[in-house]
């Protein structure tokens, strides 16, 4: 029983992390129908950017004072993620906006491979996993049999807060309305005075900022980062976005928590252990898609004549 | 022009010509290059199968490595467990196994579109190789199965080097499969596939059974994937889960888009690019003579850049570029226009 509760808690932390990344996948797909395979890498460079900020920018005297160093590290990580996302949108995706639909998918793969290998080669000692500083309250929250690190609690809180903020922004603000309009019908949105380039750039910036936050918090939670983490977590996050219904903010978050829970519970209870967890995620995904081909919260396909 | 030969005869003749050319090519090159030529061969049939599914039928599969996995393990298990079967029977069964898996995947995926299909197929490619961990007795876990195939007829042992013989077998199978594919693509099936891709509603109004067509596309395409995997296992003498990562599936799609969707020629350029981009970036990194830790990883980073630059230069694929050039070459001079 206590193992079950503990694994549920771990699953929620995993889900919170995946949610932050899945939001980026789902927003970008909603606006330009691109599966941005490099988005996992944006998360990865966010973690490395945060580490670099901590190592070289945060003054020695405040390194242990988490409420000073954590905000600086977060800003550093987010800045790197956003910069990378802006560069790839400008140079790898925008030139292909009118190209065949699959062309930008392949440049996304190229960007993904390039970023992984670039960081591996040129970040000092990044060929192996690097330790990440615990820039938050150390120790664990203990509720009965459950123990969760405070950094895990932070991850859950930030993830939930940011998803609600994003949902509100998209539903209430002027730019949010422009985003929804572009997602529905880019040509009509353009006629109504929406600048599609600005909307697309904003989408990438928002997604990258969330991924950057996720990168830093992931490092704080697990205390080490490596260059493969983007691709692996990216696949989980993409699966979460598909499960929840691509284009839906709520769907991405719900999908992410389901994936997180399935991952930890299957790793604990199903035969085969953690190496086998993806098989169960696949089973869940297929079961959901058989009954709801548009994902849990996705809009049903409209048949256009 | 006098009477035209039927397409089947034309395709067979072309395949025969290609086979002769390739045999000549393997005769003048070293064993290492022979192996590379054979590698291009099995990637070609995998990418060509994907071209039918994704290019002709518009179903994006991010998990074609899964069918190669099935083909490879079919051959490996048959060679180990049923040594009495000749290699061609093993390969044929690999095709069947791949096709059967594709039938199941296609039936599950026929209702899915766009990112949902992509996600489901990607999940298949990530999940399936983990099965080897579950049944270590049968699949030998992450080490995979290794075996030796004695496919050479007794008279040829010692006369023809083994890699050369293997590359002949690979290309013979690939060309045969390509003839089948080319005929399917040219005929009724090719037309229905394209009709469904362009407009499902219009196709069904015209009497095309949309679901059945999509499943059929999956079946043919994954049978090709099964053959590719079987040939890979035959060539390398191993089948290990490490060769069938999601990266493989994504590279197959990358090769298809690089080469050009919508024609089997694109698959050829894509398969060549898939094998030779890595060779070239390796050579290039060696040329720069860097520290060894960087030199080991730089080729992959370069590969990423090459992928981006090529797609930016040829958004419609290499075949799209070739076709543009071809049109320019064949354009008749202004005075002759209308006469030909």
Automatic annotation (TrEMBL), chain A:
GO terms, molecular function = L-isoleucine transmembrane transporter activity; L-leucine transmembrane transporter activity; L-phenylalanine transmembrane transporter activity; L-valine transmembrane transporter activity
- Name the InterPro entries on file: ABC_transp_permease (IPR001851), BCAA_transport_permease (IPR052157)
- Pfam families recorded: BPD_transp_2
Q: What is the annotated localization of this protein?
A: Cell membrane
GO BP terms: D-alanine transmembrane transport; L-alanine transport; L-isoleucine import across plasma membrane
Q: Membrane-crossing residues? A: 12-35, 42-59, 65-87, 148-170, 199-222, 234-266, 278-297
Could you confirm whether the keyword Cell inner membrane appears in this record? yes
Which terms are listed as keywords in the entry? Amino-acid transport, Cell inner membrane, Cell membrane, Membrane, Transmembrane, Transmembrane helix, Transport
Q: What is its main location?
A: membrane
Q: Give Gene Ontology CC terms.
A: plasma membrane
**Which membrane topology term applies here?**
Multi-pass membrane protein
Family named by the database record: Belongs to the binding-protein-dependent transport system permease family. LivHM subfamily.
| Name under which the protein is recorded | Amino acid/amide ABC transporter membrane protein 1 (HAAT family)
Q: To which species is this protein native? A: Umezawaea tangerina
Tell me the lineage of the source organism. Bacteria, Bacillati, Actinomycetota, Actinomycetes, Pseudonocardiales
TrEMBL record, chain B:
Chief localization: membrane
Q: Name one GO molecular function term.
A: branched-chain amino acid transmembrane transporter activity
- What are its GO cellular component terms? plasma membrane
Q: Which Pfam families match?
A: BPD_transp_2
UniProt keyword annotation of DNA damage present: no
Instruction: Please tell me whether the keyword Transmembrane helix is annotated for this protein.
Output: yes
| Name used for this protein in its record | Amino acid/amide ABC transporter membrane protein 2 (HAAT family)
